[in-house]
Amino acid sequence: MNTMLKILPKTAMILLAFLAIFLIEWYTPIHSDDYRYYLLGISPESHFHHYMTWSGRIIADYTSALILYTRSQLVYSISAAVSTLVFCYFIVKTPSGTLRWNKSDYLLFPLIFFTYWISNPNLGQTTFWIVGAANYLWTNLFVVAWLFFFYTITIKNSKAISPWVALLSFMAGCSNESVSPFVSLISVLAIAYELWQNKSVSRNKIVYSLCAIAGSCVLILSPGNFIRASGKEFWYGRPIFERIFIHLTERVHNHLALIWIAYVVLLLLVLLVIFNKQIRAKIDKTSLICAALVVCIGIGTSLIMFASPSYPDRVMNGTFMFFLLAISFIAYALLKSGVKAGVVGVAAVTVLCGIVFLWSYSLMLNGYKKTAGQEIVRQKIITKEIAAGKQKFIIPDYYFVKLQNSGGHFGLFHDPAVYGEYYHVQAIFKKKVNFDYSVIANGAKHSLSNETTAYSNTRGDFAIISREQLTGSITLSVNGRQKTIPVEKMKHAEINDEFWYYASVGKGEITAISF
């Protein structure tokens, strides 16, 4: 353990985690609803109108608008890294009830961070999409921070009333629809428990609970929510028991399956407790009870979504948060038990998660570098079409190469009118392409004629853009070897007035191209 402390001191560990998130966000273009919330701006009037006509998520909406208002990739990357690290840190520190770093955190922090990455239900949309992070990472950060302080107040029997915790209680209550009701429920249960135990209730808990309930009411009772719901007759027109049945039989199991790696991690830790008598004798039973409680709450956050006509994968981040808390409670209890088998077991699980993380991260970094190249191509098209006086035109959709799973993709939603408004034209449409076209941005350029240009790199990507539709075959010299490719076998797309072609030709330098 001493060797580990010397090799991975706290500062280096946190810095590495920070850089891991920062780097991916650095390669992430603004996309999807980022454009809409940039245009929304930060004026109170626009957000009040948004609240009255569209959404009750005032905390999330203002968070995303403020971040986007900077128009700085550096700010975007720092905000993603900070929010992720602080979220994980509160998960790690809740079982101990203190924010001070201790020896167990050298294992607990990487365990939670690795699990957050490899088991996240929709990493691309909850962490690397600015609007998505505002809705499902920042809001859950406020929730887990509130849980930390509420838990600490309970175990330390603190009576002081903090205005900051009161504000945090409101923000946690006004988080998102799947978690908010349980913030209010937890606060009420804490009051009921104290009343049962002590025949009295601390005033601070009453204040914090009222603030949390007020936040929940602001979120859920928003006029905008009712306006949006009025157009969802396909769901709200059904009897409530039918909606519950459909939700339980068709939606819940698929969404709970998204975080299966978290279940595996949790199960491995539980097995250490079950099959070791010494651990069972010494482990803190309160931590086990808390772990069981947050698992039940986590499942509840999934079950309650029967009330919603839609259930995107990213919503599961709230459920996932409670399972991370369960992992943290049990791992912390194992480490504090002092039993060698418990410490070694947690270390082994952490190493396994770390190995999966390294594999997953390498795929993510490669994939997001390619989408950054694709964004360069998209921006060049936008600049070119605007310069030509076009008011309506097409850009290619993003294409993701292999990642750990599709949850690594950021959102591909595209509103042509919103994109158009952002770039001061009528509309910008997207067109699906089934190949990685980043080589056009960063590959070697080969001018084949006045109408046709080819692009290549040594990784085997080969693309052609032509104003004329191509036929026949293309002959390439790759590291001195001749290779002929029929044009009809190349992947292709038509973007505005140009024909795009793509083929993977094998690694090597292309030195000659002929038709």
UniProtKB/TrEMBL annotation:
Residue intervals passing through the bilayer: 74-92, 104-120, 126-151, 206-227, 257-275, 287-309, 315-335, 342-361
Pfam families (alphabetical): DUF6056
Keywords linked to the UniProt accession: Membrane, Transmembrane, Transmembrane helix
UniProt cross-references to InterPro entries, sorted A to Z: DUF6056
Name assigned to this protein: Uncharacterized protein
Native source organism of the sequence: Salmonella enterica
